[in-house]
Design a protein that fits this description.
3 copies of one chain form a homotrimer. With 372 residues, chain A is of the alpha+beta class. Chain A has 2 domains: 113 residues, Rieske [2Fe-2S] iron-sulphur domain (Rieske Iron-sulfur Protein); 188 residues, Naphthalene 1,2-dioxygenase Alpha Subunit, Chain A, domain 1 (Alpha-Beta Complex). Chain A is 23% helix and 29% strand. Chain A has 7 helices and 17 strands. In chain A, the strands form 4 sheets. A 7-stranded antiparallel beta sheet of chain A has the order 11-17-16-15-14-13-12. A 4-stranded antiparallel beta sheet of chain A has the order 5-6-7-8, with no helix packed on it. Chains A and B meet through loops of A and helix 3, helix 6 and helix 7 of B. Chains A, B, C: It is an enzyme of class 1 (oxidoreductase). Chains A, B, C: Pfam families: Rieske, VanA_C. Chains A, B, C: InterPro entries: ARHD_Rieske_2Fe_2S (IPR015881), Cholesterol_7-desaturase (IPR050584), Rieske_2Fe-2S (IPR017941), Rieske_2Fe-2S_sf (IPR036922), VanA_C_cat (IPR044043). Chains A, B, C: Its EC number is 1.14.13.82. Chains A, B, C: One of its GO terms (molecular function) is vanillate monooxygenase activity.
Chain lengths: 372, 372, 372
């Protein structure tokens, strides 16, 4: 457990709502757990270990029938509690109960708690105000990236890289010429950078135009990256016509939005990246949502190559002490919080009665299996 | 040797006859042995370790000349006894003798004995009556599957899965509603299921029509899966118009065939699957053979994804005790026979003088190699 | 270090000159070292560890600006000495100094010294007379091959394989019917074969025609393979009209050239193969250069499959003693020289003060990193 890289007792975004069909489950690995997600009813979601208690087939290859997940191999039907409910010609009462996961659908995402189920508490899912208001629109996507999820946290908590990785869209020289400041409060870390009286880069020029504002005049630009555990980064970004108050300028002088990043470990060295943008202007303009999504998808794809090579390099030189400069403070402090959560989790696990933690939480041994 | 998953002292199907050309050898790994198959003469077949004694090149990349396998690198010529017969400008008497394999061509298949060659006995190749009679036609194919070959035995010895995996072709609800019975006798295991007075599924409707029989009347359907070691599964399947005697009905009331499955381990976790169907009606109708082959190929491909995911799951949870239900009896009993054969093989190997078994059975050390 | 397969204190060809652009670096692994090659000025080349001292990003994904290599992640600028020269808003004096590599551009190739930099001496780069003379033309290419680089040395120091691998172009029966002789002198090994009064194979017929000579008369043909460490093989090849002196015939009776092979280990079991041909006739004919390059590229590609399978076979049977016949003398003697160089290197490494050799030669620890 010493080298655990992520807390498991936490809510992670596992999928976008539209990824789970009415009949077709979704198999996805989160924090090392193979999980089959499915909809017992159209507006419900359930999550069980993606492993049929009968012969180990992947339940996610099956289908949903009468609220149960049917194994596509021999027809075993499992419920959202991990218990087998039926199987043709079999008495199933004694079948082992498989691990079931606390899972919630909220804000258009599927949230799962991969660790100790007794600690799952839906009220701990972060509240996203933009997702609850009609004044906001959201568009986003999903990338699979071959790197430790913490490299993505580092990436997002230091937007200096926009100057280089995203030079032609949101990057601009003034970013790395402006100092950042980082504060952490409780489990939250905020890194901010303010750039005054600069020209907007292409992405923000388009946003100004979309908002009916002149795009050829100086602006004040801001980036406020906010980390909350286990690995969510919300970034307030925007520009306002210069001298109108910047981040605090009235709505009619600015274009702003929230870059939404849910970062979910798949394994120690691969991750799911749910990226998106929430904006509180022209919320009804679906064409604009699509066009921003397309633009953002392209921009964020530029990070993939950098991160995957960085992962390869860090594996090759595991003992190298990376520099921790002021621009890295956001990532460094976020990682400290993660480490603290992992330690807490490991300590509580040691205290629990069940010293041997099995991935397959079998409640009872099968009574009904037949000997030959 | 403890974790050996297959017996090596047995006949396995290594290839279909047409895979080995007159000049072009075939390189294939069977039970962990890299083997070069070739034809010394048009109607003969030979098999030697796919490793040139000179510099280790793959002999299967070479060609056949005058009954010898010529290495495509430097022209060494090896015979079917594993002995080097010639090499330009070299005296080859002292070259090490490489492992040669007992190999037979029978019924349109190439059979190989990968283990102890002194025990190979061609009379142990199973007799296939359908392959010897003109009343029968056969068509089939080959798939490479990334799973332990025993998962395929389980699959075929429990046809309950047809209801689910093959729902649109040969599957039907009545299969998993009908009990199976399993007997084993000696090294043979038979699992049978009989379904009376049901409607035929699409595949069998077509077979009835092909046989000139009404396809819209109730039928009696049967499945008799027969395992013989090391890993052959022959399945008597068919339908007869209801009440005419089912499996024992006269020929004019039924459509029946034998599903032919030769299951050959490549390694511990990959396998070659030789599948096919033998039928004793319209044996001369080659177009029908082709159309059945195409249909069966599509049906059997549906199993691949299920088996490969199952393999991944079982690797992830190696300690999970799979359930052994009545429907699993066929697979369970077949595996017991396999385990017994492996134990016997290991015991006899311990008794043999040659305690250290080398994959490269070098008969004598080279006398003629030159020192520099 | 015992199993080291290549000397590291040697000049290896790492790239063709045209692979390194003016702004775009080249990332390439040589002898296990990840190296970023770039041009500080149009006619210069530099090489540093492909690892940004800041966060481990691959420097080769960045770009060149004002003679410095700029990391594409956060803008750190590194110099050809491995020292960080600048980074936006940072004082960089205390940043660790990364490994920089001796690198030279000569004869259209980029030469790198991957090992102990204190021993690098540009005068040790082999002199290639053909590359210095206007009477010669050169064309070549690069292949990545999944095999131990020494298998390629074996391949080139025994051209017997032309008869088999390259049967339709440069191979001919007379090759393996003619004896070879091998001498080694100092660090050089020469294997020669002379074939008298034979018909030229297709490739040489074309060369004769290109040279204005009859292609349908008997010729004397020669092959002189010359190995020099660490892994360069230059092969004098050619044909002269029979009886005119063969290798020593006057220019007007022959077509000859040098097959140029720079063999560079990437890792223990993969390699870069820089192949080409230098000819001293029609040196100005670029179309001829292109056509020879195309032909040679096709011929040399035939070796790839053979070598990659050979590698797989040798890994599977690591204890098999390969035969060492007279035709193998060139490779065997070349390997002895390589082994001697590796031993010398290891001994000198033991004597050096720095007992622990780190891949990351950090000269000084960062002074300026900030604690949080």
């Amino acid at each position: 457990m010493t080298n655990q890289t992520y807390p498991k007792n936490a809510w992670y975004v596992a999928a976008m709502s539209e990824e789970i069909g009415l009949e077709k489950p979704l198999g996805r690995k989160v924090c090392g757990e193979r999980i089959a997600f499915y909809r017992p009813k159209p507006n419900e979601v359930a999550a069980v270990l993606d492993f049929c208690p009968h012969r180990g087939a992947a339940l996610s290859l099956g289908y949903v029938e009468d609220g149960l997940l049917v194994c596509g191999y021999h027809g075993l039907k499992i419920g959202e509690d991990g218990k087998t409910k039926a199987m043709p010609l079999q008495r199933v009462q004694g079948f082992p109960c498989m691990k079931a996961y606390a899972v919630e659908e909220l804000y258009g995402f599927i949230w799962v708690w991969p660790g100790d189920q007794s600690q799952a508490d839906a009220s701990l899912i972060p509240r996203l105000e933009w997702a609850e208001s009609d004044d906001w629109a959201y568009g986003g996507g999903l990338y699979h990236i071959k790197c430790d999820y913490r490299l993505m946290i580092d990436n997002l908590m230091d937007l200096t890289h926009e100057t280089y990785v995203h030079a032609s869209s949101i990057g601009q020289k003034e970013i790395d010429e402006s100092p950042v400041s980082t504060q952490s409060e409780g489990d939250e870390v905020i890194t901010s950078r303010y750039m005054e009286n600069i020209m907007a880069p292409p992405f923000w020029q388009a946003a100004l135009r979309a908002n009916g504002l002149a795009d050829d005049v100086p602006v004040d630009r801001w980036q406020r990256c906010r980390f909350t555990p286990p690995s969510n980064v919300m970034i307030d970004v925007g520009v306002a016509h210069a001298g109108k108050g910047g981040y605090d300028a009235p709505k009619e002088f600015k274009a702003s939005s929230i870059v939404v990043d849910f970062i979910t470990p798949e394994n120690d060295d691969t991750m799911w990246y749910f990226w998106g943008m929430a904006r509180n202007f022209k919320a009804d303009d679906e064409a604009l949502t699509d066009s921003i999504r397309e633009g953002q998808g392209g921009i964020f794809q530029e990070d993939l190559e950098v991160l995957e090579y960085q992962q390869v390099n860090l594996k090759a030189f595991p003992d190298y002490d990376l520099l921790k400069l002021n621009i890295d403070a956001g990532g460094v402090q976020s990682r400290r919080i993660i480490e603290r959560l992992i330690r807490t989790e490991q300590d509580s696990s040691k205290l629990s009665k069940n010293g041997i933690v099995s991935d397959l939480k079998v409640e009872e041994r099968p009574l009904q299996t037949i000997s030959f």
